[in-house]
Design goal:
Helix content is 68%, strand content 0%. It is built from eleven helices and no strands. With 337 residues, the chain is mainly alpha-helical.
């Protein structure tokens, strides 16, 4: 069966398509993002049955328990704390990622003398480079969003005020880049995700240029589930770095993600590094599936838009040329020698 040819979008076209898909997907599942963040930053408690008052609304036992307690304590709006800054971060991060991914991949393919399919190792490397470049420029928004998501009910702040709070901490402006090292390590997550997506696409749908929505959703969900399980300990450590320090540290922030992991293992055991993994996978799978499904559709829309613009521009230029030629024919004098 011959392969279908697919028109290649410019890097910014892929970036806009990817960012649009990411924003729509994250908006749909945002409550899961709140839940997984709060589960990941809370300390493990040993409840004293003689003190039933300890069973308060500040500790969550599961995803559903967290949703129920957040709504009871903060209302439905509590499930959308930091929503605006999160979508800004998602849009900027995914725009940067898809832009750099398209650019780096195009440069790599152009450098090959013999066109051959890219292997898994190459896809992972391209994804890692693109993810690192994206993280450097967009991590400040992620830091502010994490802070907003973990702010207590009586201490809610907007995007600007939360950013100011981070800057006024002991880290100063560099506080906006807290967790950068962990984030750079975590570029293996999207690289594993998109590398796995490309490989799964070649395996299940070889030679198929445009996937159906359910096909893109399935591949996106499968690839994200694998990446999330592999990188969950680092995800938990990054959230710990970017959020307010736990009460047991008396306001002393963590310095490295290694310190966060050591603290979690000491207080909660090795399984503490996987807390919040259920909503993390649910959110990741849904977001990735919706993102890739939406991105495929957006890319087709952009291709059609570019074709229309090129056609309209060509027709306009042709009309202008014809008008100029007609005017020159009637106005210009006939010169004879």
């Amino acid at each position: 069966m011959p392969s279908q040819s697919k028109e290649v979008l410019p890097p910014w076209g892929s970036a806009v398509a990817g960012a649009t898909g990411a924003v729509l997907a994250n908006a749909v599942v945002y409550p899961l993002d709140i839940v997984k963040t709060r589960l990941q930053v809370q300390d493990k408690r040993i409840l004293d049955v003689s003190k039933p008052s300890e069973a308060d609304s500040s500790h969550y036992d599961s995803t559903m328990d967290a949703i129920r307690k957040i709504i009871a304590d903060e209302g439905v709006a509590g499930l959308y704390s930091g929503f605006n800054s999160s979508l800004i971060g998602v849009a900027s991060q995914n725009f940067a990622y898809f832009y750099w991914y398209s650019t780096v991949r195009a440069i790599y393919l152009a450098s090959k003398t013999i066109p051959t399919p890219t292997g898994t190792a190459v896809e992972l490397s391209l994804g890692a480079v693109s993810g690192a470049l994206a993280q450097i420029f967009t991590i400040p928004v992620a830091v502010v969003t994490t802070r907003q998501q973990t702010q207590p009910k009586g201490d809610k702040k907007g995007l600007i005020d939360t950013g100011r709070e981070v800057i006024q901490s002991e880290d100063g402006w560099t506080g906006l880049w807290r967790g950068l090292k962990a984030s750079l390590v975590l570029v293996v997550n999207p690289s594993i995700t998109y590398g796995a997506y490309q490989r799964l696409k070649d395996i299940f749908f070889p030679g198929k240029a445009n996937l159906r929505p359910w096909e893109a959703f399935l591949l996106g969900a499968m690839s994200k589930a694998v990446a999330t399980i592999v990188t969950q300990p680092l995800i938990v450590a990054k959230v710990g770095l970017q959020s307010r320090p736990p009460p047991a540290r008396n306001g002393k922030p963590f310095k490295t993600f290694g310190e966060v992991m050591e603290y979690i293992i000491h207080n909660e055991g090795i399984l503490g590094l996987f807390k919040g993994i259920a909503p993390q996978i649910m959110k990741g799978v849904l977001v990735q599936g919706l993102l890739m499904m939406t991105k495929e559709r957006m890319e087709i829309l952009f291709i059609l838009l570019f074709r229309y613009v090129r056609k309209a521009r060509a027709e306009k230029l042709q009309k202008v040329a014809e008008a100029v030629a007609a005017k020159a024919k009637h106005v210009a004098p006939l010169v004879t020698i």
